[in-house]
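User: What would this chain look like folded?
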Amino acid sequence: MTWEKKRVLVTVKAYPEQSQKHGCVVCTAGITDEGDWIRLYPMPFTTFLGAQKIKKYDWIEAECRRVKEEKLGRKESYRIRDGSVKILDRSLSEGKVRGRAPWEERNRIILPHIVPSLEYLMDEYPEDHTSLGLIKPEQLMEFYTRERLQQPPEPKEFQKSLDNQIIPIVDTIPHIFAYRFRCAGCREGSRHDILCEDWELFESYRTWWESYPHVDLLWEKIHQKFYDYMLKQDLHFFMGMYSQQPTWLIIGLYYPPKDGKIKENKIIPLQHWLQPSLSSNNLAR
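Assistant: Here's the prediction, encoded as structure tokens.
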């Protein structure tokens, strides 16, 4: 088995799930320093815990190999080698520019990867098994739940791993949140209704109950953040294909402020962010 090192800007963390084979894991997606989409799985849930947890917009390095036995043959899918993940640079996850998140710097890497529409991604899959992409909805019509919102699952106890690390038991979150929107490529009168599995959305649903202990009030607050607020931002959808069938899901939200949009279509290499070298200030060991 041949492993290769990949350097990846993490852009998506799916909500943790229980795998019979791998335990509690997170499907992670991002953009390599070569400008390619990549899906990293299974990423242990413990990688996202503690002071050195992986965050969105971290540059990481991992040993991985292309998954060839996958049912749908998704071209971006790579398997992670246990214990090989290293954080290289946190300037895009923790850094501040003029007192706010470094959206402009993130945009320079991420926005050049926008494709025209979800229809474009749908057409690409039969050609080359494309299963990841970034789109910008032309019109955001509605954010809704496909079933009535219920009280979130009760918090569960923690468990110990083999090395005595304390790990929270992940609650199963119902996949009921969806966006209705139009793409630039939609035929007149048509629209998309797509499930959203953004980790921030699921975690808000799970944790906000303590502050808003009534489902109607909880939904009002969730709707304010994930619809009303998003209308004011430059909202984009990270799209991913479900592993068992060629169905597209919104796997993450990207919402820089509208005044931070970068129009140049130029890929910024990883080396730009790691000058002059991987210093001890940026390298997490």
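The mean pLDDT is 82. If you want, I can go into more detail on any region.
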